[in-house]
Queue: 2 jobs
Job 1
Amino acid sequence: MDSGAAGQPKSEARIGLLNGFAAYGMWGLVPLFWPLLKPSGAGEILAHRMAWSLVVVGIALLFVRRWAWAGELIRQPRKLGLVTIAAAVITVNWGVYIWAVNSGHVVEASLGYFINPLVTIAMGVLLLGERLRPVQWAAVGVGLAAVLVLAIGAGQPPWISLCLAFSFATYGLVKKKVGLGGLESLAAETAIQFLPAVGFLLWLASRGDATFGAEGVGHAALLAATGVVTAAPLVCFGAAAIRVPLSTLGLLQYLAPVFQFLLGILYFHEAMPAERWAGFGLVWLALTLLTCDALRSARRNAVRLAAARGGAVTSGSAGGREAVGPAAGREAETVV
């Protein structure tokens, strides 16, 4: 086999991993960005994020020249309705996250994305009728215990974490049914968000409460940069998703909440009493169970696939032993 052809998949995998690290790294470090936008409130920051994201994604789509999906989407009312739901849910997610970070709840926000896989699994069982393996049931049970420990320790449920986890899990479920690519999906969602966002910003300006332009050029530029902050990691994620296995992306997704958690403790100096450590410990145990089960399942599926391919090769050889030489070699190479 040609060495260049053999090296290409490795090169693609490296590019995919780098893009995956970049995407989840940016999502993990984004708590450093939102405080820079003060004195803007969470509502104003959210509205700018919605509006400027459409501008950035629109420029990206002009560059790649992908517009055919827009006409198809408009002609499908059901799919357009799902996109509207996705836009509403991610608006809630973005708004809660921005408010949480700028209000000193970075650690609790990170917990939301730690428990998101558990919520996604639970929604799959309740809404889609999916069946869980015993280890997955155990992980969900440990996750529920973690929420109880955190609720008892704090005197109330971790509302920020639960809101982020459920909103993002719902967003993922809706996006799965829509079936649009990352860039196209964000363009459709922000197109729906755009007019309400601009209307809110104009209302703020009419009241004299808008900070865009009133706090200097630098502040205005930072508000405009919310579009890049939103789109850049998504573009990197899209590049990673087509180059690395889903199991690898599943492991990389934990980078973002890990970075957020560390920032909350080491940079923002948020409190971590014993009951919060206990709750996080249970969540990490649940995620460890999920990860080990997923890796074991992936290895089992790989063995089955290899056995099926081997059986196909053996069957072909037994049915035509005279087919030896270059032709038989090419068939075997195709199967592998």
Job 2
Amino acid sequence: MTKFCGPYPELVGARLWLPTQPFEFGWASPVGCNALRCTSCGEPVRSEVLADGERRRYACGCHRRDTVWSYRIGSESDDLHPAFTDWVCGGHPDFELPATLDGVELNEATDWDALVAETALRPPFDPPGVELYARWLTRLHRLLHAEQAALSRAVAGLLSAEDPLLVRAAYDFFTNERHAAGAEFLAGAVAERREWLEGTPDPRRPSSTLLSGAALLLHERLLAVDASGAPVDGPTLALTKELALAGIGPSDTPLTFRDYDPDWLWAHGGELAAANAEWVETLVYASAGAPAELRGKVLAEAAKVAPAEVRAAVEQHFEQPDRDALLSAIPPT
């Protein structure tokens, strides 16, 4: 099945990645399109790295463009020059097994658990310029089709690893692939290992713990929603609430609950302010979405913990007359 880069095929400079295999496209940015053709002259678009080692020159029979970083064809226009749209993606074939990717043989007999264990920390190739963690596993997952679930469930197996680096690798993968099969095991794995995670430094941020990294991932997982906009993962929502009451979660934690369970947020706003003072301003901002009769209650409870912070946030995020009414309910500092 032929697929196309869309909506904007990408040109990349010499320091970024232009794949040689035709199935490599569209799985991340910046990854150059290697199937460009010109709609004006009909020729394929050729490319070469220039002597400065920074520019890549693209050319057909009627156009030439040098690129240092990346350029998405058709995406940039201004008042002086219309967007350049003569070059289009000519189409890419599917990545089908059996195949060899970066020296790794993949077929129906592939041991996905062994493959993940081998490549999670020692990837056979790191695509240059792609700003993702767990790049190789993410790339493979996005290239695969029927085998995607087998790969991602194997990554989920790393959630119970004793090596913090492997746990971190699983977190990175599911941060990129929050809808992947196996992501439904995140909440259970974090709850089961909470004490260990809380006592284990995050390999990437040693000043923080793996539990903090897990909490951030759980909030990312909540972005996987159904057709009605509700999170597909109820256990994850329940665990993020439990962690939040202990002061654990990203800086925008109140906004998560504003979006997915506002009644719970209004009922626990004071507890959240007490659990993590860094959430106070975001809590005040989120309270703009509370019913009027609850908003003052939420802010008054938060002000019991941090009156100065609440007053400052109200002054910043509310206009008169709401501002004056809310400030009058907050004890002076």
